Amino acid sequence: MRWIELENAVNVRDLGGLPAEAGKRLRTGQLVRSDNLQDLSPADVTRLVDEIGVTTVVDLRSTGEVRSEGPGPLKALSSVEHRHLSLLPEFGEMTDVAKDALALNRERALQRDPKNVADAFYFGYLEDRPDSVVEALRAIATAPGAALVHCAAGKDRTGVVIALALSVAGVPREEIVADYEATGERIELILDRLRASPTYARDIDNVPAHEHDPRPEIMRRLLARLDEDYGGPLGWLAAHGFDKVDAEKLRNKLVEE
C-alpha cells in the first residue's frame, strides 16, 4: 500500500504492491482509492494526472452530493473520464437534496439491521445498486491509465467496491481487510474535511464517533455473507452480470504478469 500525499485530499492511496494469486502482486499506477476530490489544488491535480497517471475517475456519490458539492477541478480536464455511479438509491426528490439522501440511506440501514448499522449500509449498497457496482469494476478494468475510485470519505462505498475489485484480482482476504482498515490511520483528517462541508457536517456529527471507524470485523462480515449467500464475491458479481470475461479483464488490468 502506498499513500499518496496531497494538499487537499487525505485518504488517497495506490493499491499497487498488494499480494495477488500465484505469488504475483498488483501493479502500481492502476488502481487508486480516495476521499472526495472536490478541493484538489493545482499541485494535487498535477500529482494525480501527470505523475500517477489517473485517466478515469469513478465517483460513487449520490446525485445530490455531486450537485451540492459542485464540479471538482478534475472535471475540467478532457483527458480524464468521469463515471458517476451512485451506490445510494436514486428516486424522487431525494436525488436533489444531498443531506436528505444521506439521511434516507441511514434510515434504510437502521431498518435492515438496527444492531449492525454499518453491515446494513454495506450490504445495502450491493442490494440497492448492483448495476453501479458492476459498472464501477468494468470502468476500472477498461481505464487506459490509473482508475481512481472515490466517494466522500473514501471508506464505506469506496471500501465495498475496492474489496470486490481486490477479490477478483485474487488478493488474500486478510489483505483486503487490512486495506479497508488502513483508512483508520487518516480518520480524524477525513472527518475534519467532511465537517467543513455543509453537505456532510450534519450526517457526520449525528453519528457516534466510533461508528466512523473502519473496523475490520465489518468488512469480514460482509465478505463472509457473500461467501454464505453466493459462494464468495465472484459469485455475487456473476449473479449480477459480471461474467468470466469481465473478471479476466479486471485481473489483467490489475495483476502483474
* CATH topology (fold) name: Protein-Tyrosine Phosphatase, Chain A
CATH class: Alpha Beta
Are there runs of 5+ residues with pLDDT below 50, and where?
92-98
Q: What share of the residues lie within helices? A: 40-55%
**How many individual β-strands?**
6
Beta-strand content: 5-15%
Terminal-residue CA separation: 19 Å
Oligomeric composition of the shown chains: single chain
What overall geometry do the principal axes of the alpha carbons give? Answer: globular
- What is the assigned CATH homologous superfamily? Protein tyrosine phosphatase superfamily
Number of domain units: 1
Specify Rg, calculated over alpha carbons.
Answer: 17 Å
Sequence of secondary-structure elements? EEEHEHEHHHEHHHHHHH
Instruction: Tell me what the CATH architecture is.
Output: Alpha-Beta Complex
Number of helices: 12
| Sheet with most strands | 6 strands, mixed
Strand order of the largest sheet: 1-2-3-6-4-5
Estimated structural class: alpha/beta
What does this structure look like?
The structure is a single chain. This protein has 257 residues and is an alpha/beta fold. It has a single domain, classed as Protein-Tyrosine Phosphatase, Chain A (Alpha-Beta Complex), CATH 3.90.190.10. It is built from 12 helices and 6 strands. Residues 92-98 have low confidence and may be disordered.
